[in-house]
From TrEMBL:
<keyword id="KW-0472">Membrane</keyword>
<feature type="transmembrane region" description="Helical">
    <location>
        <begin position="240"/>
        <end position="262"/>
    </location>
</feature>
<feature type="transmembrane region" description="Helical">
    <location>
        <begin position="405"/>
        <end position="426"/>
    </location>
</feature>
<feature type="transmembrane region" description="Helical">
    <location>
        <begin position="365"/>
        <end position="385"/>
    </location>
</feature>
<feature type="transmembrane region" description="Helical">
    <location>
        <begin position="45"/>
        <end position="64"/>
    </location>
</feature>
<feature type="transmembrane region" description="Helical">
    <location>
        <begin position="274"/>
        <end position="299"/>
    </location>
</feature>
<dbReference type="GO" id="GO:0016020">
    <property type="term" value="C:membrane"/>
</dbReference>
<feature type="transmembrane region" description="Helical">
    <location>
        <begin position="447"/>
        <end position="470"/>
    </location>
</feature>
<dbReference type="InterPro" id="IPR000175">
    <property type="entry name" value="Na/ntran_symport"/>
</dbReference>
<keyword id="KW-0812">Transmembrane</keyword>
<dbReference type="InterPro" id="IPR037272">
    <property type="entry name" value="SNS_sf"/>
</dbReference>
<keyword id="KW-0813">Transport</keyword>
<feature type="transmembrane region" description="Helical">
    <location>
        <begin position="165"/>
        <end position="185"/>
    </location>
</feature>
<dbReference type="InterPro" id="IPR047218">
    <property type="entry name" value="YocR/YhdH-like"/>
</dbReference>
<feature type="transmembrane region" description="Helical">
    <location>
        <begin position="12"/>
        <end position="33"/>
    </location>
</feature>
<feature type="transmembrane region" description="Helical">
    <location>
        <begin position="319"/>
        <end position="345"/>
    </location>
</feature>
<dbReference type="Pfam" id="PF00209">
    <property type="entry name" value="SNF"/>
</dbReference>
Amino acid sequence: MAGTAPVTNEGWSSRTAFVLAAVGAAVGLGNLWRFPTLAGENGGAAFVLVYIACVIFIGLPLVLSEVLIGRAGRKDAVESVVVVAEKSNVSPRWATLGWVELLAAFLIMTTYSVVAGWVIYYAYNFGGDLLANLFAGNIFSGAFASDTPDQIQARMPNLFAQPGLMIALHALFIVLTVGVVARGVQAGIEKAAMILMPAFFILLVAITIYSGLTGDFSKASSFLFTPDFSKLSASVINDALGQALFSMSLGSAALMTYGAYVSSETKLAPTATMIAFADTGVALIAGLMIFPIVFAAGLDPASGPTLMFQSLPIAFHDMPGGSIVGFFFFVLVFFAALTSSISLVEAPTAWLINSKGWSRLQSAIVMGLTIFLVGVLGALSFNVLSDVRPLAFWSLMEDQDIFNSLDGLVGKLLLPIAAFLTAIFVGWKADRKLIEAETGLEGGMFIFWRFLVSWVGPIAVGLILIFGLFPSLLG
Ligand code: TRP
């Protein structure tokens, strides 16, 4: 079938390469920044428990679904869905699923890269502090020892007050990402994952151990793991499911795109399970890394999105060795963000290569530039454009600035729609024999997985879509 031949003959060099790249895509700011923020705001363990249930019963089955669409189609996110639709004798209009996912990847990257720019800035500042302490022979000092807590907190608004610097950092992050994507699957994406992911894990374990030894580990672990079910509410459940989708990179073309490069010998079910578990494991470990430090410094776990950029730096200030830990912490976050952004850019780049016939280099640059331009508006919404309300016509978003509108569009609309469509497509529309063969699951396992995809997924995701769009229903 000439029409369904892979357009690129790129592929992972091994299963390990795929797993590392896919875990790299999944593990990112979602695990290190968003998960602790939401767990903190939603009272800890009750949220964590619901989150884990969402991962197992909704997220994991969908991870397998997306990877298998990619491998069965062997093209970009849009064309892979079309190939599976054709083989299943259903309408090629299912391509819509691929389009929604690509749009989600694009929009996520516009805001992701702005936040990753802040991470670069913090890593740079902590690095400078560490060097100064090194030369002063004071290496185990806390971070920014001569600053007051107010001055440390002020670093974030100070950054926001410099639009030029924010745009430059955002540009730098995109250039780094495009530089990797342009080199291709094996020489770029895979190589970056093979270096950055092991480095990430070493840093994660080292900082978590240090944080456990010096921080308030028992308070952190009871906060994260001893549930107080009175804290459970529809909105907590809603947040947990939305976070599970985001964290596993569902609904945003990454898993389909990376799935297309997987060899036909690889067993997909155990591989998808590894990806989902690794992602969840990292989120939990990130909680155990961050909260002991937060509690030891007597800070509020529910401080929201500024937890990483204002609370933690204060904690690093108070902590023995905080200068070292602070620097390596932001390096770790940077590595995690980079392996995710690589996948966010690869998905729409693969589509350009496939559909326009452009070279990989040209596709990656054009995509990077487009993302950069939209992202600039997001960066400027922290200062110059802070009064602009792009979605003012939509009551749900009328108060949101550009950055939060981009973010809300993805989280409230695109990811749940994409996950819903994926579940319906794989659970109900796609050819059962084709799907069964791709999963490699047998007997009861296949039936159970298919039940989760056909019933549990659409109902649960449908509910978060409705509650996300009509929050007043949650009371
Ligand atoms: N999972 C990523 C994180 O936790 C964010 C993300 C969502 C993503 N969708 C994606 C990353 C698609 C890569 C590709 O930070």
